[in-house]
Structure formats: structure tokens, C-alpha cells
Design a protein that fits this description.
Elements: H1 2-17, H2 19-56, E1 59-62, H3 71-79, E2 84-90, H4 92-103, E3 119-124, H5 130-139, H6 151-192, H7 194-202, H8 207-243, H9 245-249, H10 258-291
Antiparallel strand pairs: 1-3, 2-3
Helix pairs in contact: 1-8, 2-6, 2-8, 2-10, 6-10, 8-10
Length: 293
């Protein structure tokens, strides 16, 4: 326990004594976490928007007259497809009555010879299945036509998914860059204290004893580097929700609620920053100790 407190104390002393050296790593972690926070907020809202679009997409499929008596069998066959979420049947009598209610009794004479088709309204489980479902339906003999959805909607969902994937790749690249830069910064800190390390080696200090204060420094870099991004995420997103700026710019987007989104992202930023700081320090000091053995 005494050794642990000693490592923590030395880590704090080293961090503040060589603050100018640590400053560049702090800046890197802060900027990386800011990017990460922004990308996580955007990605979450894009995910929510994609799900909303997917749940609202419906395919309208009228049934050819010669297949009307098979409607229930056709519905069961459609529901057996795992990519189809829901199939709602509407009779031509229902549609005709809606037409009469909306446009007047001049359409009432169609009750004697109803030209409207029975129809299915179909929802897919995920937007990525939309075009494939359209293609399958168009290949079947019973649909009169398939409408609602198609290429434009599929392309929009694909574009939103591409933004999510692109954001993930960018975050991964930034994290690798942050680990690399922190590793180099800790290396400078090690070189500035090379004499101190050599003295510890002479008196018989183990590698873990020498390494531990530098690991604490890395954790401190991660901790302090996450503070500003977390505050920006909390107050920035709160301002965005309250100001109405987002709804004014993007009328089709309903932003995700403050909680638990901001809390979860804050935890992710803190844990990620600590991990990046620790890894950067560990890589650097381990390489140095191996090289000087």
C-alpha cells in the first residue's frame, strides 16, 4: 500500500514538475476527446434518425383481383420472411369508403362494381432490407404494383449508415494518433529524467517500481485531458437542445434526449482518455526500460 501511495505521489510530482512537457499530450487528448464526443453525439442522433425512418417506411402493395381470395395465405407467407416486420391487410371496401368519405358521394356508385384493389401495407425489420423486399415483391405474380420506399429511401439510409461507419473509423484513427503522441511525450519526460532513472537502477529499483510513476502521469494526462471535452458535451448539447438551433437547421431531426446520452458519452470519454493515457505511457516507458537494460 505504501508503494502504491508513493507511485501516485511521484506521478503527481512528475506531472506538475514537467507540466510544459505534458502540455502537448494534454492538448492532444483534449482535442481527440472533443472529436470523439462530437462524433458520438452525431452518431447517436443519426442512429436514432435512421431507426425513425425505418419504422415509418411502409410499402403499399395492391393485390391483383384474381388473387383476392388468397389474401390470408399471402399474408402468412410474407410474415414468414424474417426481414418483414409487419403486414397489414386492407380490403378494397375499406378503401372505397375512405374515398367516399373524403371526396363525397359522387364515388358511391363504385360500390356496385368496386375497381379498387385489396392491399397489404408492409413494414420491414430494418431499412437495409427495403430494396431487397421490393425486388422480391416485384418478382411475385400477385402484386399489382409495389410503391413507397425504393432506391431514394434506401440510398438515404445507406448514406446515414456510411456516416456512422466513417465516424467510427475517424475515432479509431484519432485514438491511435493520441496513443502515439502521448507515447512520444512521455518519452521526452523520460529522457529529461534519465539521470534519475539511472540512479534508481543503481540502487536496485525494479522496472515496475520505475515504471509506475510514469503510468500515473499517463493516467493524469488522460484525466485532465477529458475534463474540458466532458464539460463541452454536457453544456454544449444542453444548449443545442434548449436553443432550438438544431431543429431550425434540421427540421426532420428530433435530437435524442439529454439523459442518458450525455451521461453515457461522458463515461466513455473519461474511460477512453484514461486508457489512452495509460497505454501511451506504458508503451513508451516499457520500450525505454527494455532498451536501457
Amino acid at each position: 500500500m505504501k508503494r502504491i501511495f508513493r507511485s501516485i505521489k511521484e506521478g503527481f510530482i512528475g506531472f506538475f514538475r514537467h507540466f510544459s512537457v505534458s502540455l502537448s499530450s494534454l492538448a492532444v487528448v483534449t482535442l481527440t476527446m472533443l472529436f470523439l464526443g462530437a462524433i458520438l453525439l452525431v452518431t447517436d442522433n443519426i442512429t436514432a434518425m435512421t431507426r425513425n425512418i425505418e419504422t415509418e417506411i411502409e410499402l403499399w402493395v395492391p393485390i391483383k383481383h384474381e388473387y383476392e381470395d388468397q389474401a390470408e395465405t399471402l399474408r402468412e407467407e410474407l410474415l414468414a420472411d424474417p426481414t418483414i416486420h409487419e403486414v397489414t391487410f386492407k380490403s378494397k371496401e375499406e378503401d372505397l369508403e375512405l374515398l367516399i368519405a373524403e371526396y363525397g358521394e359522387e364515388y358511391a356508385f363504385y360500390r356496385e362494381d368496386n375497381p379498387i384493389f385489396d392491399s397489404f401495407t408492409i413494414q420491414v425489420t430494418e431499412g437495409r432490407y427495403l430494396q431487397a423486399t421490393v425486388d422480391k415483391l416485384e418478382a411475385m405474380p400477385w402484386p399489382e404494383q409495389v410503391s413507397g420506399g425504393g432506391d431514394a429511401t434506401s440510398q438515404m439510409i445507406s448514406a446515414l449508415n456510411a456516416v456512422r461507419v466513417g465516424g467510427t473509423v475517424l475515432v479509431a484513427a484519432l485514438l491511435v494518433l493520441a496513443v502515439f503522441l502521448i507515447s512520444n511525450t512521455i518519452k521526452l519526460s523520460i529522457f529529461s529524467r534519465q539521470d534519475e532513472i539511472e540512479i534508481m537502477r543503481i540502487v536496485g529499483a525494479t522496472n515496475s517500481f520505475i515504471r509506475s510513476p510514469f503510468l500515473i502521469e499517463g493516467l493524469l494526462i488522460g484525466l485532465f485531458g477529458s475534463i474540458i471535452p466532458i464539460l463541452v458535451v454536457i453544456f454544449g448539447y444542453q444548449y443545442l437542445l434548449n436553443s432550438g438551433i438544431a431543429s431550425g437547421l434540421f427540421t426532420m431531426i428530433n435530437l435524442s434526449p439529454m439523459m442518458p446520452l450525455v451521461r453515457n458519452i461522458s463515461i466513455i470519454l473519461l474511460v477512453t482518455a484514461l486508457t489512452v493515457g495509460f497505454l501511451g505511457s506504458y508503451i513508451s516507458v516499457t520500450k525505454h526500460l527494455r532498451w536501457t537494460r
